[in-house]
Design goal:
The chain is built from eight helices and four strands, in the order E-H-E-H-E-E-H-H-H-H-H-H. The protein is mainly alpha-helical.
Length: about 170
Amino acid sequence: MTNKFGEIVFNESDLCDLVMQGHDISQMRSVLVDPSVNIEKLIYLIQDPGQLMTWTFPDGSDRAIPEFDKEKNNQWFMPQEYRELDIAKYVLDLCSDSEQLQRVGQELLLYQQYNLFDLLRYLKYLVDTMRANNVIWGVGRGSSVSSYVLYILGVHRIDSLYYDLDPREFLR
């Protein structure tokens, strides 16, 4: 954000982002910081940025975020029929021409590479549930609109094939 003089003023989130990107903000000269920033916490994070990668859980245990993510990766809350769905076949069956088949095949390889088929199954369940309950959701947001698979599943309404959006923008 900027102040009334047009100078950039960093908030806590901005400064943490800089630290995580490898910048040594203690060496930055004349940085304007929002007065609401918790300086003690920020100094702690600057001294040990690795602490951003751990989380204290309600049971008092500390685990690394990637460890927690791996542990929870296969615990999607969805009915068994969605867990057993051959999502690749389902999405490929929705394609109507060779261009769509090629694009979906390319994306499915990326989803498989990142072990995201359970995510696709869950998104299918989520979209079906929202449709069944007449829930309205947005047109699309961020880099997810570059995925044609998500378009076919109904997660968003941006035809990334029509707009020639690169699926790697979403699946990096």
